[in-house]
Design goal:
Strand order of the largest sheet: 8-7-4-1-9
Helix content: 10-25%
Low-confidence stretches: 1-14
Shape: globular
Number of strands: 17
Strand content: 15-25%
Distance between the termini: 52 Å
Radius of gyration: 21 Å
Mean pLDDT: 91
Length: 334
């Protein structure tokens, strides 16, 4: 592949995409022409799972100008010239069947605004695409034991967005509103929560335990209460069933001091959904470890729920919209 990124990136960046804009994903040939030998544009991989969206018209769901670091927990990072599109999640087909269903990142150079007079039909491709290179780029060097390791947008995000974005940076909250990511009220709330959490972290560093507010825990105040092995429950929930997420107090009674239940974490963003009724989307049994690229198989399947995503309300309005994994002990059939 030949890197031809400068002109395409400049043109797309000038578009200034906003939430709700209708765009057309460029043809595979056009996108491949923007990629380097690693199958990347501005260090962001274009993955084989994205090819099925080529030629489709989709709506901008969020402007991906920032992201939270789930690999090194270094806080927020700045991303340039990228958006999330409604309905475009990774199906993991080229990554060992990973079921995390991450919302894909689309560089603006891979998209074009829809012109009203066009009929939306894209002519068949005349050129040839070397798809083998895209597939090869989904693999890293095997681990010491020979176990395959994968590379995807999630594992390479910090390379694609190396610049940290402090939560005190006010410009990001303005951008959230200007792009349509969140309302002005939601952006103000996100800033206040970020400020509160920063003060809580400082209190843990500077104050004795007796002077800390809620033990210095972040907003939402989730606290594990189990000493020793955490409990489990098997409901054999299946896609399509209706469930209710238990109360925060009920779930806290299943967590250890690190807010884990048999290795699976529960945090404040998930607590915002407590008491909500939802339909089971899928049973998840495997996912990629973003740090190592290993495909992990879960001893106990986790549940994914329809229309239940991380809104970023407690993480400065991060637009990644993860689909949380739920232990069955945190749910009850309706």
């Amino acid at each position: 592949m030949t890197a031809r990124t400068t002109q395409a990136t400049t043109t797309a960046s000038a578009e200034g995409l906003h939430v709700g804009d209708l765009v057309e994903v460029r043809s595979a040939e056009e996108i491949v022409a923007t990629l380097d030998e690693r199958g990347e544009l501005e260090t962001l991989p274009f993955m084989p799972e994205m090819l099925k969206f080529c030629g489709q018209r989709l709506t901008v769901d969020k402007v991906a100008h920032k992201l939270c670091d789930t690999i090194g927990s270094s806080g927020l990072h700045r991303m340039d010239n990228a958006v999330h599109l409604t309905g475009s999640r990774c199906d993991g087909a080229s990554h060992g069947g990973c079921q995390t269903a991450c919302l894909l990142y689309w560089k603006e150079a891979w998209l074009k605004r829809v012109e009203p007079e066009r009929d939306g039909v894209i002519p068949p491709s005349a050129g040839r695409i070397d798809l083998s290179l895209l597939e090869i780029n989904t693999r890293k060097e095997p681990g010491p034991d020979g176990e395959p390791r994968y590379s995807c947008q999630a594992t390479e995000l910090i390379r694609a967005a190396p610049t940290c974005l402090p939560s005190r940076n006010l410009g990001q909250y303005v951008t959230d509103v200007k792009t349509g990511n969140v309302s002005a009220l939601a952006s103000l709330r996100a800033f206040l929560v970020a400020l509160f959490n920063r003060l809580q972290n400082l209190s843990k560093q500077l104050l004795p335990p007796r002077l800390r507010f809620r033990d210095g825990r972040p907003w939402g105040f989730v606290k594990g209460r189990v000493v020793g092995a955490t409990p489990t429950e098997h409901l054999n929930l299946q896609p399509g069933e209706m469930v209710r997420i238990k109360t925060k107090e009920q779930i806290e009674a299943t967590l250890n001091k690190d807010r884990l239940n048999r290795g699976m974490g529960f945090e404040e963003e998930m607590a915002r959904h407590c008491g909500r009724t939802a339909r089971v989307r899928a049973r998840a049994t495997q996912c990629l470890d973003e740090q190592t690229g290993r495909l992990l198989t879960m001893k106990n399947p986790c549940i994914m729920l329809e229309d239940v995503v991380c809104t970023g309300a407690n993480h400065a309005s991060c637009p990644r919209q993860f689909i949380p994994f739920w232990r069955e002990i945190w749910l009850e059939r309706v």
